[in-house]
Predict the structure of Bifunctional folate synthesis protein.
Amino acid sequence: METSRFGFSFDSVKITGVRVLASHGVFAEERERCVPFIADVEALIDARCAASGDEVAKTVSYADLADDAESVLSSGAVNLIETLAERIAQKVLARGALAVEVTVHKPEAPVRQEFADAAVTIRRDGPLLASGTIRHVVIGLGANLGDPVQTLNWAMEEIRRLPVHVTGVSQFVQTTPVLAPGQAAQPNYVNAVLTLDTALAPLELLAKLQEIEVRGGRVRHEHWGARYLDLDIETIEGVRSDYERLTLPHPRADERLFVLEPWAEIEPEAYLAGEPISELIDGLAPAVAPVTAPATGEAGA
């Protein structure tokens, strides 16, 4: 299985030869006797968290893959091994795998010729790697070094060059930085929100935004440090994720007025994780002030 996408490297876990006696098949005689069905399953994962803490709960284990394969193969009879492979794949993706490859073998298939094996292999991407479906995306922009207004306007134009359709651009607001205890003082931030529609895979969009950050001067060396440019994906329509590279919705979006208020300016009826953003704003103390220079982009351009 391919273990690199969009410049990100991933890991994989697999199990082969999960064997179950069952009676799947198109023909009536196939439903009357049990024959071997064998599954090979490989899941694309990121093993770093599990490995660093030695915690099986933070990965998709080979035991999980075996359980899913056995559960499907031993369930009610179906006509096709393609159906079995698809059901196994969906179970594995539901566990958080980024992608999965499943092969189902039927070595005693009713074929009149002499043969060694009959098998179907399918490959499926999970939501973070799947492209082709147009989704609505909310992006937060921020900067507090250099000329933040100029940088954010430049970043918006760079985003427009991507295969996206920008649907909204907020005015700029100024906010005080969030600092860790003992962290040195920083200049105020200039923030904005941009919304867009795109068929890019979420991780592909993330990779492209990170490229823009780097070209805009971003250096990742300090958590909550001052920066020339910060581009955060706050939410992607229909996608939830606990993956550490791209948690969706953004884990702190619901407590950030510098995200919620600019977002409400362009999408006042929007929801975040099932909550109206207007109600989230009402529950937070005012913390933003307008910046005199507006964003230069116009929605939909």
About this structure: Helices lie at 48-53, 62-73, 81-94, 148-160, 202-215, 257-266, 277-282. The two ends are 39 Å apart (CA to CA). The chain has a mean pLDDT of 92. The longest strand covers residues 11-22.
